[in-house]
Amino acid sequence: MPVLTALLALLAGTFDARARDLTPAERERPIIIASDPWCPYACDPDADGREGYMVDLTREIFEGLGFKVEYRVVNFAMMKRMAKDGTATALPGMASDMDGAVRLPALAQGNSANAVVMARTQSFTFTKPEDFEQFRLGVIKDYDYGGTLQEYVDKNIQNSDRIVVLSGFGYSHLVQGLRMLTAGRIDMLLDDHNVLRWQVRRMGIQQQVLTQSLKDDADLFVGFSLSDPRSVELARIMAEGTRRLRENGRLSAIMRNYGLEEQAALLNN
């Protein structure tokens, strides 16, 4: 703790100039982080005993400057509404600006790819979304998988032989999908690579299923609601804080705490 306290104090002094455009009242307003459970990026503390590495990162940067930071676990639809009306300040795990609702920092806070989890007996090579046509693919309601992959999901959303939509709160949709997979009711489940690996380990089914990246890697960010007038400055603070925590190795340490050694190495290259 003394080392961490000293580090935060050092970071606060370094970043203070970056927050100079905020009024005292704006500094006093809490940073509200909102996310559905998407561990290891943003977790459910009651289920996981931790908040997620992007939540930890955001806390370290902003609490070091004296901001109050609060984390709220909500469902995905509520998170989108909070981003648009400004009741959420920060949203972890963003691959896009959510149709213009959030501002992304100039520097990413992570990187990952879409992936599928399947039975270990399944053989599959992905080259294009149409490769899924012979499989029943589980997807999460309201998620955007990006590009041609999302186009495939949208095109086949009414075809239950190709797309099975899962919904719920917290981990219920992923648990449901993995249970359907192990029972043979779907052939594959689509989600973020790190999220799928985390949930597979959490359920202890590593010997039954295999997680395969689709290798469409994209940067991930902690985005800031454009409905919050502080978003420009907060995004700048986030980028600068991320850069410094990369350089001093602290970001790698946070990520390693969540089993993300490979991703930490990529970020530092």
Properties at a glance:
269 residues, alpha/beta, 5-stranded mixed β-sheet, 4-stranded antiparallel β-sheet, 11 strands, 40% helix, 19% strand, disordered N terminus
Summarize the structure.
The chain has 269 residues and is of the alpha/beta class.
Structural notes for this entry:
This protein has 11 helices and 11 strands. With 269 residues, it is α/β, with parallel strands linked by helices. Helix 4 packs across helix 9 and helix 10 runs antiparallel to helix 11. The longest helix has 17 residues. The radius of gyration is 19 Å and the shape is globular. It starts with a helix and ends with a helix.
Could you describe the largest sheet, including whether it forms a barrel?
5 strands, mixed
Helix content: 25-40%
Distance N to C terminus: 28 Å
Lateral strand order in the biggest sheet: 8-7-9-6-10
Shape: globular
H/E series, N to C? Answer: HHEHHEHEEEEEHEHEHEEHHH
Low-pLDDT stretches:
1-18
What is the mean pLDDT?
90
Number of helices: 11
Question: Strand tally, please?
Answer: 11
Structural class: alpha/beta
Indicate the radius of gyration in whole angstroms. Answer: 19 Å
Give the topology.
Blueprint: H1 2-15, H2 24-28, E1 31-35, H3 45-48, H4 53-63, E2 69-73, H5 76-85, E3 90-94, E4 102-103, E5 110-112, E6 114-119, E7 137-140, H6 147-156, E8 163-166, H7 172-182, E9 188-192, H8 193-203, E10 209-213, E11 218-225, H9 231-247, H10 250-256, H11 261-267
Parallel strand pairs: 1-2, 7-8, 7-9
Antiparallel strand pairs: 3-11, 4-11, 5-11, 6-9, 6-10
